[in-house]
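Reader question, answered in our methods column.
A reader sent in the components of a multi-part assembly and asked whether the whole thing could be modeled at once rather than chain by chain. We filled in our standard form and ran it. Here is what they sent:
COMPLEX SIZE: two components
ENTRIES:
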Amino acid sequence: MAYAQPTPILEVRDLHVEFDTMSGLVQGLRGVSFSVMPGETLALVGESGSGKSVTAQAVMGLIGLPGSIVSGDILWKGQSLLTPEGQKKAASLRGKSLSMVFQDPMTSLNPLMTIGAHLVEVLRRHMKLSKPQAFARGVELLEAVGITEPRRRMAQYPHEFSGGMRQRVMIALAIACEPELLIADEPTTALDVTIQAQVLDLLADLQKSMGLSIVLITHDLGIVAGLCERVAVMYAGSIVEAGSAATVFEQAEHPYTQGLIRSTPRLDDRRDRLVSIEGAPPSLLHPPKGCAFQSRCPVASRQCDTKPARQETPAGGSVSCWTPSLPAWADVAKTTEVHAR
Amino acid sequence: MTDLSNRFNPAQPVPSEPPILSVRGLCVTFDGPREGLWGPPKKVQALDNITFDLARGKTLGLVGESGSGKSTLGRAIMRRLPLSNGRVFFEGKDITAVKGEALRRLTRNIQLIFQDPYTSLNPRMTVLELIAEPLLVHGLVSSIDEARDQVVELLRLVNLPVETIDRFPHSFSGGQRQRIGIARALALKPQLIIADEPVSALDVSVRAQVVNLMQDLQQELGLTYVFIAHDLSVVRHISHDIAILHRGHMVEMAGRDAIYEAPEHPYTKVLLSAVPEPDPSHRRNGGVNAPKTLPTQTLAFDGVGCRYRKCCDKAGGHCQREAPPFAKHEGGHWAACWHVGMT
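And here is the structure of the entire assembly that came back:
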């Protein structure tokens, strides 16, 4: 790879996004910062409404009215994509060097176009290939994502594909222009577990063979553990904890992360009860002044009325909490024990 | 009624109470696409020869991928679908043929919890109206206001604040909406609840709340559940028994720990290996540990032999010729596979 120097391929700095709705100003993102190095897989984990998809949309330039980026910056290899020149550059990057796989493969393909037409369109537009070249490349791509009989499949319509196959087509489209960064927004949520496993394996394969950087957006910690090197946990529009997958899973610092890990069902867990985080995330219409997790946190104190600043952790990650690494849930110790096996 | 459940086993005490739900040889067929423009519709066998018992106060976890027939089975038990064969017994009574008023009365005892709390509640009805509706429909109250006390009681039961009674669904979070759905299902004091993927649409942290609530309600009210799920991760905690469906067939059924710790059918093993583990040491290394599943749902079935054989490593000659029966093995473990040791 030409860029061996440690410039992140994508860097997001203190991004704030607001949505001006009928009921008031919704603060979708409240200061999100992260970076992705070349060839790295970063997971953005969070519940619905935590802002993980808004982050992806912001990077892809898909925030439309009533939403707007109010402050912060998005940098591609060190250059801002939000300045006027940057926006021009961004338009040429998106779909080519920077591409995205959406959650729902059932609605993201045009039902009136054949699979081949989808691929040929993208390849001709971005790679400036001739029609026959584009068709040949399309066949190769379908083969690369594990679709059998690609030549015949090119002439078929989306309705003739199953969910998993459609998601493969989406991935083929996303990698068609040899992107450097792929944003996958819940790529397997609509799929069966077995198909999910295949799609994840496909992503892992592609990453290895193409040196792709991936931002994987998900609510499922299980997926994260198997695929990603780094994890950023989002809650109520900000990143509350970030670090390498190994340290986050083994030694979560933030009470929310600890809670999320212990409430993820495990196959080897013989207990009769699932453990849960009581309550619900706060509304981003009137976000709390202090720590957003305060109302659900078992170890919250007076200190948490003011917003905790981001601080580095000994393991090289970062966390926004006044009392990091404090075991917040009585049974976490037990969970990690099961964990270590 | 053929008794398939009890082979002589001195260690196993004779159950003192008959099962609340017994299903025997249940089949459901749908009309598929027509052959040609005017030809007869092809039959699609959605459920084939399903047999099981469910004891009162217990939970059966019903697991299968999309298209496996798990929701169809739920609806067939509720008699919402015509059965093409087989019988369903509820509290010892044959309910296969009931209709009209008797069927209406039956639905009081068997209620459904839906998957998606965002679309299954009418957005124009308040919580009071939503929960009182079943009471009104079944003539247990004559007006919404008469139901208020009962609705308050139900809200307490599902841990929703009573002051939310006049609010509309949009002001609730997903987990709270699912609680409304549960309260609605409980309004008629049913014996059996069929929960069709009740937590699949919910966030992880909220999922546990709803599952735990269902467990508490089971303890408190002696409910029996059929808990439908699309993967094996969430059902372990709530189920007493787990049944695995594959393309309309039950391939394995056993006590829950037996399913997780000693799965017998190859498909169950595939389902278990497909669940992503929240543990970074279980890294995906692209294809090496991938489950072999690709064609399960799309593969055409030619009518003979084991339906799973084309995705199965162990498939041999016998599997080509004859479909394995769903038979009872050691330790009350049911499986449909020639490779599981018969006892």
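What stands out: Chain B touches chain A through 49 residues (CB under 8 Å). Chain B has ten helices and twelve strands.
Send us your own complexes using the same form.
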